[in-house]
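U., I forgot to send this yesterday:
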Amino acid sequence: MTKEEFNASLKKLGLSQRDFSSISDTPYSTINNWGFNMNGKIIPVPKWVGPFLEHYDKSRKYDYLINEVFNAMEKLKEK
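Result:
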C-alpha cells in the first residue's frame, strides 16, 4: 500500500491520520513519515495497515447492522 492509497482509504472511511493514529495506537509522527524518503529509502506503509483498515470498515458496518437489528427488535416489542 502506498501513502496515496493509505490516504485514499482513510478518506473513504471518513478518518483523518490523527484518527487512525488514535485507533491503531501508532504515533502520529510515524504515520506522517510513511511515504517519505529517509537515507535514500522510502519509508513504506506497513503491511498490516491494509488489513487493519479492511477489518475496521467491516467492524463499523457490523456495528451499524447490529444496532439496526436491536432497534427493530425494540420497536416490535413495543407493539
